[in-house]
Amino acid sequence: MRLIPFLLALLWAAHALAVAPEEAACHADIPCPLGARSYHVKEPDDWDGTSPLPVLLHFHGWMRQGTLIVKHGRISGATRRRGVLLLAPNGEGKTWDFWSDRTDDVAFAAAVIEDAAKRYPIDRSRIFVSGYSYGSAMAWRYACENGDGVAALLAVSGTLRQSETCPQAPAMVRHVHGTSDRVMDFPFGPDGQTTWPVKLWRDRMGCAGRGAGAGQWSITRHDTFTRTTWACAEGDVTLDVHPRGHFIPRGWIARQLDELLGRDPSYP
Fold first, then answer.
1. By the 8 A CB rule, do 186 and 197 touch?
2. Is the alpha carbon torsion for 178, 63, 110, 73 positive or negative?
3. What is d(CA 70, CA 84) in angstroms, rounded to the nearest whole number?
4. What is the CA radius of gyration of the chain?
5. Can you tell me the distance from the alpha carbon of 43 to that of 92, in angstroms, rounded to the nearest whole number?
6. Phi-psi region for residue 220, left (φ > 0), alpha (ψ -120 to 50) or beta?
7. How far apart are CA 173 and CA 260, in angstroms?
8. Residue 179, CB half-sphere, CA atoms under 13 Å: how many?
9. Percent of the chain with pLDDT over 70
10. In whole angstroms, what is the distance from residue 211 CA to residue 239 CA?
11. Tens digits of per-residue pLDDT, 147-195?
């Protein structure tokens, strides 16, 4: 009977040797250490191991962690089917400090990208920053303070105060929000304006006029949006508004990535 545990130990040792140390220590559920903090990473399906990868840096919601993000069908499900490397930082105390520019989280998130660049050949021209709820507000803060190298901000149901002054900005902004959101309330403007959620970026990026209404568009029969776009002096701003509450709409992140990457839109 003593032979069985001995053989099992040999098999486990052989398996451990067969797995690269980097993979064993840092992949999906297993966080990548970065100083006193950490992040999670998920490669796309069918990656050849050498081609440069677009990046989606996604900030989790309140009381979540990156372990959820790398499993989330509406986030990881979108990136892994579209050749995008997913980076999911872990917030201290499972939250983010986005309230002012006096935050360590922007520098930490920038360090996540640099650490990932040591592990993967990332495409610096296609770095997308995303987040949901508190994570969306953190994505706004990151773009506000360190957005010069960001190709697009993809924000879901969370903003900064529209009176903020941002020293930097991404090349493109795409934001989605529900008018019935009571968690991160939809920021209606004067007289109930529904274009107010992106006023900060419209001001910062030199967007003139009321914007071009693109009408309604749908991903699924449950997910229909009213889109407004602005072609601005320093980039483009897109706002998708829906009548529902606080959630990540099905297929929304996937559709933005398809459009940004020049792919035919698909679901999921």
1. yes
2. negative
3. 12
4. 20
5. 24
6. beta
7. 11
8. 15
9. 91
10. 10
11. 999 999 999 999 999 999 999 999 999 999 999 999 999 999 999 999 9
Query: Which tokens hold the place of 155?
Result: 């924000």
Three-state SS at 218: strand
Distance CA 36, CA 230 (A): 41
Q: For residues 97 and 102, give the distance between their C-alpha atoms in angstroms, rounded to a whole number.
A: 9
Q: How many CA atoms lie within 13 A of 198 on its CB side?
A: 32
Q: Residue 68: in which H helix or E strand, if any?
A: helix 66-69
The predicted model scores a pTM of: 0.89
- Helix, strand, coil shares, percent, the chain, to 5: 30, 25, 40
SS3 35: coil
Residue 85 to residue 53: CA distance in whole angstroms? 6
The closest of 47, 50, 48 to 83, measured between CA atoms, is 47
Burial grade of 236 (CB within 10 A; 0-12, 13-18, 19 or more)? middle
- The C-alpha atoms of residue 57 and residue 41 are separated, in whole angstroms, by 9
Sheet with 172-178: list strands edge to edge. Answer: 32-34, 37-42, 85-89, 53-59, 122-132, 152-156, 172-178, 235-242, 223-232, 212-220
pLDDT digits (tens, 9 = 90+) for 103-142: 999 999 999 999 999 999 999 999 999 999 999 999 999 9
